[in-house]
Amino acid sequence: MPDDLIAPRRNQFMNNEKAVAIGSRFWEETAAHGLAGIVASLGKDGYFTTDNGHRFVNLSCCSYLDLDSHPHIIQGAIRALEKYGVLDHCISRVRVQMPALLELEDSLSSLFRAKVVTAISASAASAGILPLIASGHLANGEKPVVVFDKNAHFSMNLYKAVCADETEVLTAPHNDMNFLEDVCKKHKNVAYICDGTYSMGGHAPAEELLALQEKYGLFLYFDDSHSLSIVGEKGEGYIRSSIQEVNDRTIIVATLNKAYGAAGAAIMFGPKRSDQALTLERFGGPLAWSQPMNTAAIGGALAAAEIHNSPELKERQEKLQRNIKLFDARIDTEQKGLQFPIRVVRASHENVINVGLDLYRQGFYVSPVFFPIVARDKAGLRVMLRAGMPESEVQRLCDTILRNKLF
Amino acid sequence: MPDDLIAPRRNQFMNNEKAVAIGSRFWEETAAHGLAGIVASLGKDGYFTTDNGHRFVNLSCCSYLDLDSHPHIIQGAIRALEKYGVLDHCISRVRVQMPALLELEDSLSSLFRAKVVTAISASAASAGILPLIASGHLANGEKPVVVFDKNAHFSMNLYKAVCADETEVLTAPHNDMNFLEDVCKKHKNVAYICDGTYSMGGHAPAEELLALQEKYGLFLYFDDSHSLSIVGEKGEGYIRSSIQEVNDRTIIVATLNKAYGAAGAAIMFGPKRSDQALTLERFGGPLAWSQPMNTAAIGGALAAAEIHNSPELKERQEKLQRNIKLFDARIDTEQKGLQFPIRVVRASHENVINVGLDLYRQGFYVSPVFFPIVARDKAGLRVMLRAGMPESEVQRLCDTILRNKLF
C-alpha cells in the first residue's frame, strides 16, 4: 500500500487522456470520410480492390521497395515452413533452439556488418533493450542518465516510465545536440534514445552524435526502421551506413517488415558483443520469452537477405529514387530533395480531406493529416512513394494533386 | 530537466540489477552443464537431433497438444502465403487492411464466444492494453487503481511503471482475495491484472474474482496463455470456460503459439465491445502500429481454429490427460491431480542438475530449476508433459526419474 505522503506525479511520460482525445477526433473524421477502416484485397499487380470493385494503390505503406510481394521472399517463407514443419516450437531460445534463427542471424550479421540478434518486432526489441540500457546492463554496468529525443517513436517512449524506475530519464528537444552535450557534461554516463530516420522525414545527426560518443562515451540507441533497405550498399540503413563500425556503445534496431519486405526485426550490436546478445536473450523481456520470429518470417527474411546481397537491391533503390525525383520535380514539399520517400503535400485544413478523397477516387490512397494530429496550419497529405510505381502512375499522381485546390 | 528537490524512488516496480545477478548465476550453471544453449533440428517424429546425433524429446515446450507440427496448420500457413502473396503489407490496420486478419478474428470470435482482436504476441497485447486500462479508456472512463497479482507474468509486470504514470498501482499477494476486496472497498474503480493459469501451476480464483466484479464492478484482465486449447470444449481456456459470457469489464488475453499450435495472440472482449476493439486498434501501442500477425501466422491460426472446432481437439486433450495421469501414478509432485500439464519433480540442490543430465542423456529435455531462481530447498525438474508422447515414453520417463537419486 502507498507509504508516501507526497502525492506522486502522474503523466510525466505519457498522457492517454490527451492522446485519445486528440486521436479520436482525427480518426473519427478520417473514418467518416471513408479514408480509414478500408478493407481490400491485394492483387498480384500491387493494387488493392475493395469489395465493391474500387481499385487503388496504397501510398501509405512502408514497403518502399515493393519487396513485400517479391515471389522469392514468399517462396523463402514457404520453404522454411516445409523444411522445419512448425510455425513456432514454443520454448525460450536460451534453452533449446532450431538452427533456423541462427542461420538468419548469421546472414543478417554479414549483411549489416554487425552482430545481429532478431526479435518479432522493433517495439519488442525496444521493450527488451531499453530497460537494460537504463539499468546499465548493456553498457559498462553503471546506470546512465537516459535521454529520449522528443520526437522518438511511441514504441520507445512507451518505455520511458520503465526506464525511470531504474534511472533518471530526460526528454531532449528534437535533434538538440547542445542540450545533449550539456547533459553529457553534467553526468558521467549518458544514453541517448532516438529514431535514426524519422517517419515524417529527417534523420538523427549521426556525425554529431558520434562526436559526442567519442568525447563523452555517450551510449547510442537508434530505431532506424524507416531507412533499412532503402539506404546503404546492402540496405543497412542510414545510421549503419553513417558509421564505420558498430561499436560497443551503439545499438541499432530496425524492423524487417517495412522496406526489407519480410517480418520481424534486427538488432545490431558491435561485432564482438556476444555478451550483450546473451544478456538480451536471457533478460531482454520479449527477447527472452518463448516468442522468436516464426519460421515463415525467418524463411522470408533469409530470402530477403539474398536479394539484399544481389544487384536487384540497387536497381530497386534507384527506381525508388527516380520516382522520388519525378515527384519532387512537380510537387513542392518541405521534404523536396531528401532521399527518404515520404512527402507531406501541404493543404489547408478545410481542403485536405477533399483532396485525399479525390486522390483515393483516382486510385491513390494517401493519409490526410490535420488538426488535432498536427497544428491547424500544418495540415497535409502524407504520400509514401514506392519503387514499384510505374513512372506514368507517379505522373498521374502528380496530375491529380495539381488539379486540386490545395489552399 | 529535473524540477524536483525530492529524490525520486527507483526500482519500485522492477530491479534489473537483482534480476540479472540472480538469473546469471542460474543460467551460467545451467549452460555449463550443457542444459541451455542447445541447438538441434526438429524431425517429423517430434524428436530433436543435435549436430552430433543426440536425439531427445523437448519436455520444456509449451506445445502441450503437439499441434505445432500438425500438417493442417503448416498447410494453412502455406496456403495463406500463396493466397495473399505477402508476409506483411506494412500499414496500420486502422487505415487499410486485407480481409485475412478479419477472417481469422471472426473465426476466433465464434470459437471463443467473445469479440476477438489479434496481436503478434500476448506481451504485445499487454503493452497495448494495460496503459489504456490504467487511464480508464477500456472501462468507464475513470482511472482505476490497478492491482497486479504478485505472481503475474513479467510480460504484464513490465507495464507496472507505465500504468503508474497514469494511476495508482498496487501489488497484491498471490491470489489474495481479501487484499483485493479491501482495495475494492476503499476505491470506486479497481482493475486486477493476473495470469489466468500460472506457469508453475495453479489458476486465478475465477469464481471469487467474478463475485468481486459483481459486488464492486472490479475490472479483470487475465493472461490465460498457459491453458488455451488444453482446457474447454473448444479449447477456450480455463478462464473463458469458467465464465458464462465475457462481459464489458473483462478482458482475456492468450497466446496462439503455445498449445494452440500457431503464432500470435488472441484478445477476448465482451461480444458487443467493438468500441473497446476500436480504441485498441487506434491507441493500443503495438496493436495500432503497422505490425499485425503475418500472413503465415494468420493462415496457421485459421487452420488451427478448424482443428479446435473438430473432434480432434478433444482426442488430443484426452490424450494429454492420460499422459498426465500415467505420470502422476508413478511420480509424486505438488501438482499431482491437476489438469495443467506442468509438474515440478523435487530434487535436492546438489542432485538436481545431475538428474537433469541423466534425463537428457536418456532423451528427455526437462528444465532444472534451482537456487537462486527458487529457494535452495525448492529445487526441482520442471517437466512439461505433451499429448504426443507415446505411453511407453511416459513410462520410460518415469523409470528414468525413479532410477535417479533425487535427495
UniProtKB/TrEMBL annotation, chains A, B:
Record Pfam families: Aminotran_1_2 (PF00155)
GO molecular function, one term: pyridoxal phosphate binding
Needed co-factor(s): pyridoxal 5'-phosphate
Sorted UniProt keywords: Pyridoxal phosphate, Transferase
SUPFAM superfamilies linked to this entry: PLP-dependent transferases
Single GO BP term: biotin biosynthetic process
Domain Aminotransferase class I/classII large: 57-401
Stretch forming the signal peptide: none
UniProt-recorded name of the protein: 7-keto-8-aminopelargonate synthetase-like enzyme
Organism field: Pseudoduganella violacea
